[in-house]
Every structure is written in C-alpha cells, then in structure tokens.
Amino acid sequence: MTLHSHLRREVHYGRVVSAHSDRPGTVLDMLSAAVASAPERTAVVDGALRLTYAEVDGHVATCAAALASYGVKAGDRVALLLANRADVLVLMLAAARIGAITVPMNIRQKPPETAYALNASGAILLCHEAGLAGELPLPEDVPALRHCIAVDDDLRIWQHAAVQREPAEAEPSEEMPFCILYTSGTTGRPKGALITHLGVLTSVLGAQQTLGLEDGEVTVMPVPASHITGIVLQLMLTLRVAGTLILMREFKARRFLEIASREGMTFTSMVPAMYVLCLMDDAYDSFDLSHWRVGTFGGAPMPDSVIADLARRNPALRLSNIYGATETTSPAVIMPAAETAERSHQVGRPLPYCELLIMDDEGREVPRGQQGEIWIAGPMVIPCYWNDPEATASAFVGGHWRSGDIGSLDEDGFLQLFDRKKDMINRGGFKIYSVEVENVLASHPSVIEVGVVGRPCPVLGERSEAFVYVREAIADDALRAYCAARLSDYKIPDAFTILSEALPRNANGKLLKTALREQAMARLQKTGTAAS
Ligand code: AMP
Fold it and tell me: Best label site of 110, 182, 338, 439, fewest CB within 10 Å?
C-alpha cells in the first residue's frame, strides 16, 4: 500500500474535512512545477501536434491575455464545446490564470442541451469546434453569450490570440471554482457541479499516491475531456506527474492499441467497455504494451472475465477499479491493484480522506455488511451546484453527497455496489437519466406516456429501451429522429416498444419500471441477442 501524505482536519465551505497538509496551492501550481522540472518534455500530443511543457505554458499565457481582451474577468464563465484537443487543456489553464471558470461540454450534445448549459452557467464566451458551428443554439436563445470562437487543427486557440496586452492576472485560491460540469439528474434538469481547485488537487494527489504514479508517465486519453474522469484522472493527473498526455478524438480500439504501443503508454483510465473492445481485437497480442503498468477503470461494472483476460495477457499491468462521480471530483474509492482479481465483486476502499457512510432511508448508518445508500464527504466533494440552492439542498446533507447508489461495506472496509436508487442507465460509462429522455419523448404530439429502462448488454453493460404508449401508429424511426434533434446521441433509446395501451402502474399510479425491465429482458431472451 502506497503511503499517503499527511492529512489534517481543515474547514472548507463550512465543512470539516481531512485534507492533504502538503499540497499545491492551485491547479496552476502543478503547471508551474511541471514547467520548472521538465520544460522540454512532451506535455501533450494531439494528432500531429506535439507541445512541450514550455510551449503549453506559453500558449496558456497568450490565451489568458486573449480571454482578458475579450472582456473575460475573474469569476466569468467560459464554455467549451471541444473534442479532445490540446486547446482544451490550454483553455482550462488560461481561464484559471485569470480566475475565470470553464464549462466543458460534450461535443455529442444537441443545441437545446448546449443552450441549457450556456444559459444556466451564464457563459459569456464559447469556444467550439469549427465543425460544430451548425450545432450551436441560435443567438437569441443564449442572450448572455457575447463571443463565439471557432477552432480547428489549422487555427488553434492560441493562434487566434493575436493580443499583446498583458492579462490582469488574478490570484486564484484553492476554494475557487475551476470548472462547472453539467450533469443530468433524476429531476431531468441538469445541474452544474462546481469543481474547485481544492477538489481537483485532492483527487489528483489521492489517485497519484494510491496508484503509485511516477514522474513522466505516458498516458493515452480516449475518455472525453468534458467529463470529470477525463479532467481529473487524465488531464490533471498527467500535469501533476509532468507526464505526456496523448489525446484521442474518439475511441477506436485498434487506433488506441497502435498509439499505446507506439508511444510506450504506461498508464490509462478508461471505462470497462473500452477494455472489452481492445481485448476483442484479434491483433491485441501483436502490440507491444510492455510499458503499460497502471490501468484504471470505472464509471460502470467490469466483467470478471475481462479482469482475468487482462491479467493473463498483460502480467505487468496493475489494474484498479475506481468508484466516484462528478460530485466527488472523480475518485472516492479505489481498489488496490493486488486485490482486483480476488475482489472483483467490489469497487475498492475509500481513499484516506474520504468519509463514506452507508445510510438507510431514515438517515441512520446501517451495520457493517448491510446495504444502504452511499453518502460521501471529504475535501473532494463539490461545495454546491452552480446557482442552484434547491438541487444543492436535496443532494447534500452536512457536507455529505447522497450518491443515489446502493452499496455495502465489508469488515475490511471494501465497498460493494448493488442497485441504484436513482433512475439512471449506465451505457458504457455514459449516464442516461431516464426522466430526461422521457421528457423529450413525452413532448412528441403522438405520445401519451413513456417509460425508459435499461437492459443488459455484454459490451456496454447496459443499453436503453423506451416503452411508448401512443395515440396513433408511429414508426420507431420517427421517434428516434425526434430524440436525435434534442438529445446527445448516446441518450437516444437503443430500442423502442410502441404500445397502444397504457404502461403498467401500481395502485398509486406509479409507473412500474420493474415490469418494463422484465419485459425488456424477456424480449432479449426470446431473440437471444443481448447486444442489440
Ligand atoms: P458520473 O457523475 O457521470 O461520473 O457518474 C457517477 C455514477 O457512475 C456513480 O454514482 C455510479 O452510479 C456510477 N459509477 C461510478 N463508478 C463506478 C464503478 N467503478 N462501478 C460501477 N458504477 C460506477
């Protein structure tokens, strides 16, 4: 077990938490340290572009000046609708340098989703993929937005920045927001999780020490830089160890294996489906993955057979499950690699600074071994949702985040996950809150009512199915197209069951999702295909 640096009790956001006593001041200090220790080392690889730490630092300074010249000040929000490109890292650091807050968004979003995040965050500047210009909301739908800047491989954000003026450097402090991430929730209204410097630094130190990461790790990043895992376990963790970050715009197993072997990848964080797809590649064993020492997975359960297969084919690989969420700034629980095979039914042990409780519905801790809702506290737990006291009040109790996940702790303090209290489908790590999809489908004129449930899939863990009670006959494709105009592609139901009768409900009128799940399962078993 790797030693953690000393922890002490501190007060943050009115909560008493155990924090690392020796930690960088802000995310920017990690950049300064990397620039000082390894200025000529490759910091980021983005296709043909390779930037050293010194170059990243220069671009960050240029972009900070550019943002200031656009009128961005400390506390302002800068939205990003960008693929995994070097510009994301540069912009997040540049905004932080002037005390501004980035709002990274997923490029699979549709205009109504983007408009929601822009309006809720009050972003004044949006930097987007040039290729997504047609996917932006109309200007009248986002009144607070003042500037839109398009970037692509020929015109990077720092090339836009023809600004000579020195920026008014803010002095960010660790409790200040670093970014805001919009996550959907069980109310169907996305909430802006406020990620602070302190949260990021805590999670980065916790992961680095538990996983035993060393100076100069080489990592390949196929998970999106708009999600907390990508931001913490890849962008920021790599910065912390002055490592080399190789960005992938989209995950393709063969391409990932080619890059990992060519660049001598030592570490990566992926969702289970990505490991599954890599192992399914016939050429897997022909790639040189001998440098690969550390691999983490999370966001969704990993099949036992995949853990065993990886251990057989990559004996040097230390594999760890990581459990966490946007609200816990990623890792809250990590499985020590030595325990991964033996304890594949569990997700790991809470990090030393993480207080994890298992609570019953009345808010009482349950005895060891029993199941209850997982509540999490610590310096990495977000202080609040942006501008949303109502959502904050219902999700947090005394500094503990109520996860909506059901779990139990064993005598050795290892956490096992069971069901979920929240109505959410985990599609290969991408979370789909049923109510969000149901709201969209319910707004279709032909639809009377709808229920969306998950069904098992061997590759993605779960896929979604919509049961739709309609007024008049309608084709699946029409409903699919209706969703596609309003929802990110992964939220579009994988299957539709169109019904001419009402959905099953209990005596109180509550929709019986269990009955829908059983129907979906029965259909799968009949057709013998769990993957479709
Ligand atoms: P997100 O905010 O998108 O990171 O989603 C967080 C949710 O993902 C958690 O509340 C869990 O339901 C699920 N999750 C996170 N880590 C794991 C894991 N290691 N295994 C299974 N489910 C997980």
Answer: 338
Question: Which whole-number Å values give the CA distances from 402 to 25, 131, 333, 378, 470, in the listed order?
Answer: 28, 39, 15, 13, 36
CA dihedral 327, 377, 187, 507 (to 10 degrees): 140
Residue 323 CB–ligand 1 contact under 6 Å: yes
Mutate to test the pocket of ligand 1, among 231, 431, 491 (most ligand atoms within 8 A of CB): 431
Residue 524 · residue 456 · CB < 8 Å: yes
Atom of ligand 1 nearest to the CA of 430: 3
- Is 0.85 topped by the overall pTM? yes
Distance 462 CA to ligand 1 centre (A): 13
pLDDT digit string, tens, across residues 117-173: 999 999 999 999 999 999 999 999 999 999 999 999 999 999 987 555 666 677 889
Q: How confident is the model at residue 291 (pLDDT cuts 50, 70, 90)?
A: very high
Mutate to test the pocket of ligand 1, among 385, 426, 434, 462 (most ligand atoms within 8 A of CB): 426
Q: Which of 169, 172, 178 is nearest to 25 (CA)?
A: 172
